[in-house]
Amino acid sequence: MRVLGIDPGYAIVGWGVLDYAGNRFAPVDFGAVCTDAGVPFERRLDEVYAGIKEVIERTQPEVLAIEKLFYQHNQTTVIGVAEARGVILLAAAQAGLPIYEYTPMQVKQAVTGYGKAVKKQVQEMTRVLLHLPAVPKPDDTADALAMAITFCHTNGNQLNRFMRRGVGPI
């Protein structure tokens, strides 16, 4: 199964694609969609949408794992991220991808085994699990790969049962 993990934002959207089979995952591709702060916000949203749509078309994932929006003290930031999530979810829906959402605590728990791990611990464990020579940069990319790993850990046993029975993914 091919999984696209996304760390949403409007300045930088991290993305990472993993292949998952038999309790093993391997990185396929990863990167970031970056927008220019000097461009009108609606244009930035268009760039996020186009960038994620291109990643979906090129890598052909079967599911999308994305960070669930959580409360932030800065309302301006949370609104912008929510709008960026909207165009990302639109691109996924248009491609027919099932969408799975995870909180930061769920990602920390799935990747490190500790729900209160710090960001650097999650990124380093992501590097180790994927046998990468260095933590992917920007950080948003490593976070997106962690999101994809979370999907695999959270749904892996169920997916493997379906695959063995020949039913296919959920």
Automatic annotation (TrEMBL):
Organism: Faecalibacterium prausnitzii
Role played: The RuvA-RuvB-RuvC complex processes Holliday junction (HJ) DNA during genetic recombination and DNA repair. Endonuclease that resolves HJ intermediates. Cleaves cruciform DNA by making single-stranded nicks across the HJ at symmetrical positions within the homologous arms, yielding a 5'-phosphate and a 3'-hydroxyl group; requires a central core of homology in the junction. The consensus cleavage sequence is 5'-(A/T)TT(C/G)-3'. Cleavage occurs on the 3'-side of the TT dinucleotide at the point of strand exchange.
One Pfam family in the UniProt entry: RuvC
Cofactor section: Mg(2+)
GO MF annotation terms: crossover junction DNA endonuclease activity; DNA binding; magnesium ion binding
Sequence positions that bind Mg(2+) 1: D7, D140
Primary site of residence: cytoplasm
Enzyme active site: D7, E67, D140
Cofactor: binding comment: Binds 2 Mg(2+) ion per subunit.
Catalytic EC class: hydrolase
EC number: 3.1.21.10
GO cellular component, one term: Holliday junction resolvase complex
Binding sites annotated in the UniProt record for Mg(2+) 2: E67
Catalytic reactions of this protein: Endonucleolytic cleavage at a junction such as a reciprocal single-stranded crossover between two homologous DNA duplexes (Holliday junction)
Primary gene name: ruvC
Keywords annotated in UniProt: Cytoplasm, DNA damage, DNA recombination, DNA repair, DNA-binding, Endonuclease, Hydrolase, Magnesium, Metal-binding, Nuclease
The protein's name in its UniProt record: Crossover junction endodeoxyribonuclease RuvC
Family statement drawn from the similarity comment of this UniProt entry: Belongs to the RuvC family.
Description of how the protein assembles with itself and partners: Homodimer which binds Holliday junction (HJ) DNA. The HJ becomes 2-fold symmetrical on binding to RuvC with unstacked arms; it has a different conformation from HJ DNA in complex with RuvA. In the full resolvosome a probable DNA-RuvA(4)-RuvB(12)-RuvC(2) complex forms which resolves the HJ.
Any single GO BP term: DNA recombination
InterPro entries given in the database record: RNaseH-like_sf, RNaseH_sf, X-over_junc_endoDNase_Mg_BS, X-over_junc_endoDNase_RuvC
NCBIfam families linked to this entry: PRK00039.2-1 (NF000711), ruvC (TIGR00228)
Subcellular location: Cytoplasm
